[in-house]
Amino acid sequence: MRKTELQRFRKLLEAEKERVVKSMTQHEKIIRGQDGESGGPTRGHSNHLADQGTDEYQYEATIHTANTEGRYLYHIEEALARIEDGSYGKCERCQGKIAMDRLKALPHARLCIECKEKEEEGAV
Ligand SMILES: [Zn+2]
Question: How many A from CA of 10 to the centre of ligand 1?
Fold first, then answer.
């Protein structure tokens, strides 16, 4: 891959990383706030069971999102490391080239489309 292309992917990944980190910080605040301070406009009069149910659901959803983001962040960091060591754009399984279109759609991809499909089928 050409250097200019690598730079472009690095920028893309770094911007994405920043976005995910910000979002994660936000979610962590929500998760921590939940078992921390009492108060807040919704907490004061929680006689409404329905409201509480919604809160709980949102809490679960937030944790789920935070977990997904954590994994995603890991993949982004891995991709950045691969740019550093020069293995970016190479499939981890077959060592073939990952198609440019695939990388553009999914800059943190670590498998080519053929290997990814095989992995999803479970035929490893
Ligand atoms: Zn492959």
Answer: 21
* Residue ranges in the chain modelled with pLDDT below 70: 34-52, 123-124
Question: Any residues with CB less than 8 A from the CB of 100 and at least 6 apart, and which?
Answer: 5
**C-alpha 121 to ligand 1 mean position (Å):** 14
Axis crossing angle, helix 3-34 with helix 49-85, rounded to the nearest 10: 150
Contact 66, 27 (CB under 8 A): yes
Pairwise CA distance, residues 8 & 47, whole Å? 53
Residue-range domain boundaries for the chain = 3-88, 89-124
Cα–Cα distance measured from residue 121 to residue 58, given in angstroms and rounded to the nearest whole number: 33
If you measure from the C-alpha of residue 67 to the centroid of ligand 1, how many angstroms do you get, rounded to a whole number?
Answer: 27
Q: How far is the CA of 111 from the centre of ligand 1 (A)?
A: 5
| Model pTM score | 0.77
- How far, in Å, from the CA of 92 to the mean position of ligand 1? 7
